[in-house]
């Protein structure tokens, strides 16, 4: 393929060159105005002694109106292009000054400085700073920033510590050198929930959660989560906070979850605001995790940052890994692990198995925004989990200490990261490094042999071909295995097998009977396990396994095979599965959250992929019908138990957003949805009417809608919550997710006609279009209406917000699984998008890769 086939030039990791100059300091002055903000910059540059190429003074800059430029006080006339400017500069150190004008109010891309509901906010990662002023906008250029903001707005925030403030201005100084992508500015009529934290060395840190008026009652949880995160990072990683103040701001219009700007984290309001009435248990858990994630970036991302954007997983993989550890500590570790496995399989395996597959550390890109992916984040975190499993907890801690010691204040690479582990442990990690460079989910085939005395496990691995990588070498796979004897007793506790070759055998001696293996315990590696087994064996593991992940997995496999048999062969629901389920739901020794997870059926997408893996063409409607029939059968089998189970798990104490109560509520909601099939909605209506929290209210509404009931409640919900944007997002989404396959596109389309639908707010857009893409049978309905509607809206959104448009194109990434008719319709939509004049680089790259 030519470099410029779609969306402009390709950037390669191998072409990395340091910038020709270092930045000694940066001083910025903002005179805020919605349509004519003036940005003055004063930057001291000096030649970079480490530069390899001839020095080229090129500064990135996009959509900027250059008013003037000076070098050492003398006006100069740089050569200005759409991407930046170039100028002749003196030999030694010099002071560069510019004044530019920008229009935050016209910035709908939500990158750079933009306005959201009357407040000013910034988003600079990855390359948004170049929309604020001319600068070497790359993460390896780090500097100390001083920022003066001039505006009549009462709250003016930037990074670092506040050094001066007065009538109409505020000045901030950040003593820690940082790349421009961590710059942030916020200005508005905001209210704060204040707090404070004393670090372990006795330093008092001022904390604030800043929100718009009306949201001040929804900050407590975020504040508590922040304090817990600060404490946890001290206790577990020995990391202390390093400024006098830490600010969190909630903004309504935001492309992602949140952003770790130094000392001034900016959050999508959906990732901060929560009260029992407006947020579900799932929302609370997500908020806690994102607050932690952004806070943890202070060390893994900010103090130690990335040399270039190919190294994104250096900060993201590690920080996701750290926030998973945190959630496991704060809540239930097994439930978190199962959730992570579900998420990885649902999003990352899907990506890894299709046209968008790329290594955890990509080697080329056109638009870096397209690489904030499940692979970089979640597989990046799994790779660190494997590293920890392989070297052990102690060595991991030692390596991390060395990492912080050795690289504090630097912009690093994956090589630096792995070197730290090699130096700390003496281990050779060259084969392990393949996890960073080879895309695709390894498939591990397991077979066993028993000769009456010795049990032999043989593991074979195969990494499938992916775009640009036809052949793969074997990777290092930590494979955790336990063995049970036929009575259900564990005879071999979890053992870590290290698979390094294409095929390898491991033997176990001293066993009396042929054991039943419990493979891939704890989901010890992000691989697809292929092993011949029986439903009896799965039921056995579901009943006896000591490893919660493996136990859940056995239940899931059982459900899957029962569903496939129903969808495929028109068989009745498997009795062994229903039987196992009935035992499990009543097992009081099991955490209700675990029971809820085990009862959840494999998703439509998961089943579609399973068919594709069997070399078959999935039929979305048949999959939908099969799941419906299975739910009916489960409800029928459990019908005498439902009322009791529901009562036993209904929380009556005052709401607490913790794992214990949340687990009960999620289990009760699962039971309620089954009851709704039996009682015509009586129990769900009662729960809806009595609910004093969003988990129960939404759970009841969802149970009703899933059974074509609840139109009254749906209307009442909108009346009650019309003033709450985040709750209304749920209202939009739930209707689309529960729409029947033949109606989903119409329901979504009707919702877009409402005055409170706006594509300028990514949350609202995703509530409708994201929900449509997730409603598999609806999206893939044979009429093609789902494809067309999504494409129509992506076409409308692209000129306004390329980033969100491009992300949502991934709804089409599984297209090659489907039949010729569907493939034809999808291709047509993708080509319609690709052909648009002026299509963004973001969307153009995505569509190009999906079609390739
Ligand atoms: N760096 C952010 C995070 O992972 C994500 C992000 C990327 C936000 C790009 C905005 C834009 O925490
Ligand atoms: Zn992150």
TrEMBL record:
The keyword Hydrolase applies. This is Aminopeptidase N. It catalyses: Release of an N-terminal amino acid, Xaa-|-Yaa- from a peptide, amide or arylamide. Xaa is preferably Ala, but may be most amino acids including Pro (slow action). When a terminal hydrophobic residue is followed by a prolyl residue, the two may be released as an intact Xaa-Pro dipeptide. Coiled coil: none annotated. Residues 108-182 form the Aminopeptidase N-like N-terminal domain. Residues 536-852 form the Peptidase M1 alanyl aminopeptidase C-terminal domain. Transmembrane segments: none annotated. It comes from Pseudooceanicola atlanticus.
């Amino acid at each position: 393929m030519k470099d410029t086939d779609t969306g402009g030039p390709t950037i390669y990791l191998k072409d990395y060159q340091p910038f020709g100059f270092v930045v000694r300091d940066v001083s910025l002055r903002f005179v805020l105005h919605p349509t004519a903000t003036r940005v003055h910059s004063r930057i001291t540059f000096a030649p970079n002694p480490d530069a390899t190429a001839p020095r080229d003074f090129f500064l990135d800059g996009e959509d900027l109106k250059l008013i003037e430029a000076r070098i050492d006080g003398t006006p100069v006339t740089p050569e200005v292009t759409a991407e930046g400017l170039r100028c002749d500069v003196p030999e030694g150190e010099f002071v560069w000054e510019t004044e530019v004008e920008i229009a935050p109010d016209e910035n709908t891309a939500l990158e750079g400085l933009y306005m959201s509901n009357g407040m000013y906010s910034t988003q600079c990662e990855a390359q948004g700073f170049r929309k604020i002023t001319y600068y070497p906008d790359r993460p390896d250029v780090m500097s100390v920033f001083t920022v003066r903001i001039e505006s009549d707005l009462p709250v003016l925030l930037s990074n670092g510590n506040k050094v001066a403030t007065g009538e109409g201005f505020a000045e901030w100084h950040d003593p820690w050198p940082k790349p421009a992508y961590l710059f942030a500015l916020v200005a508005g009529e905001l209210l704060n929930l204040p707090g404070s934290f004393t670090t372990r060395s006795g330093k008092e840190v001022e904390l604030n959660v800043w929100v718009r008026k009306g949201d001040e009652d929804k900050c407590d949880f975020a504040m508590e989560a922040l304090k817990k995160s600060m404490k946890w990072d001290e206790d577990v990683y020995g990391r202390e906070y390093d400024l006098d103040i830490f600010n969190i701001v909630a903004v309504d219009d935001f492309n992602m979850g949140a952003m770790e700007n130094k000392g001034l984290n900016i959050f999508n309001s959906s990732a901060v605001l929560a009260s029992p009435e407006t947020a579900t248990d799932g929302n609370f858990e997500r908020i806690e995790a994102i607050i932690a994630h952004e806070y943890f970036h202070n060390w893994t991302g900010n103090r130690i940052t990335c040399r270039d954007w190919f190294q994104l997983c250096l900060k993201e993989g590690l920080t996701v890994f750290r926030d998973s550890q945190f959630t496991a500590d704060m809540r239930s570790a097994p439930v978190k692990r199962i959730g992570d496995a579900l998420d990885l399989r649902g999003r990352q395996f899907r990506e890894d198995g299709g046209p968008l597959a790329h290594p955890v550390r990509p080697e080329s890109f056109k638009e870096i925004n397209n690489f904030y992916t499940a692979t970089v984040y979640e597989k990046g975190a799994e790779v660190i989990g494997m590293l920890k499993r392989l070297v052990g907890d102690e060595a991991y801690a030692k390596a991390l200490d060395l990492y912080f010691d050795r690289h504090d204040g630097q912009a690093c690479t994956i090589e630096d990261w792995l070197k730290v582990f090699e130096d700390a442990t003496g281990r050779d990690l060259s084969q392990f490094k393949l996890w960073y460079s080879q895309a695709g989910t390894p498939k591990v085939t397991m077979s066993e042999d028993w000769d009456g005395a010795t049990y032999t496990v043989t593991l074979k691995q195969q990494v499938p071909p992916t775009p640009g990588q036809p052949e793969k070498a074997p990777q290092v796979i930590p494979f955790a295995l336990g063995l049970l004897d036929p009575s259900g007793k564990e005879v071999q506790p979890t053992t870590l097998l290290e698979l390094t070759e294409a095929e390898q055998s491991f033997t176990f001696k001293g066993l009396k009977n042929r054991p039943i293996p419990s493979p891939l315990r704890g989901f010890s590696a992000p691989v697809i396990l292929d092993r011949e087994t029986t439903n009896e064996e799965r039921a056995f593991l579901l009943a006896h396994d000591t490893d919660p992940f493996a136990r859940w997995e056995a239940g899931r496999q059982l459900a899957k095979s029962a569903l496939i048999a129903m969808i495929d062969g028109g068989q009745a629901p498997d009795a062994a599965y229903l039987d196992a389920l009935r035992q499990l739901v009543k097992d009081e020794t099991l955490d209700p959250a675990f029971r809820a997870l085990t009862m959840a059926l494999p998703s439509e997408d998961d089943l579609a992929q399973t068919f594709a893996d069997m070399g078959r063409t999935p039929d979305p409607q048949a999959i939908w019908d099969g799941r419906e029939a299975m739910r009916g059968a489960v409800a029928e089998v459990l019908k005498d138990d439902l009322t009791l189970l529901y009562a036993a798990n209904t929380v009556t104490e005052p709401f607490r957003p913790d794992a214990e109560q949340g687990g009960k509520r999620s289990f009760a909601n699962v039971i309620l949805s089954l009851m709704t099939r039996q009682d015509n909605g009586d129990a769900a209506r009662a729960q809806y009417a009595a609910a004093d929290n969003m988990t129960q209210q939404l759970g009841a509404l969802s149970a009703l809608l899933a059974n074509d009931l609840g139109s009254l409640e749906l209307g009442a919900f909108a009346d009650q919550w019309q003033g709450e944007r985040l709750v209304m997002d749920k209202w939009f989404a739930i209707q689309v997710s529960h729409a029947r396959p033949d109606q989903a596109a119409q329901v979504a389309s009707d919702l877009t006609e409402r005055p409170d639908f706006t594509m300028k707010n990514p949350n609202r857009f995703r509530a409708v279009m994201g929900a449509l893409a997730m409603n598999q049978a609806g999206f893939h309905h044979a009429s093609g209406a789902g494809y067309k509607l999504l494409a129509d809206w992506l076409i409308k959104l692209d000129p306004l917000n390329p980033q969100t448009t491009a992300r949502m194109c991934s709804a089409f990434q599984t297209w090659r699984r489907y039949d010729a008719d569907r493939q034809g319709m999808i291709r047509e939509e993708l080509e319609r998008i690709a052909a648009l004049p002026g299509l963004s680089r973001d969307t153009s790259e995505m569509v190009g890769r999906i079609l390739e």
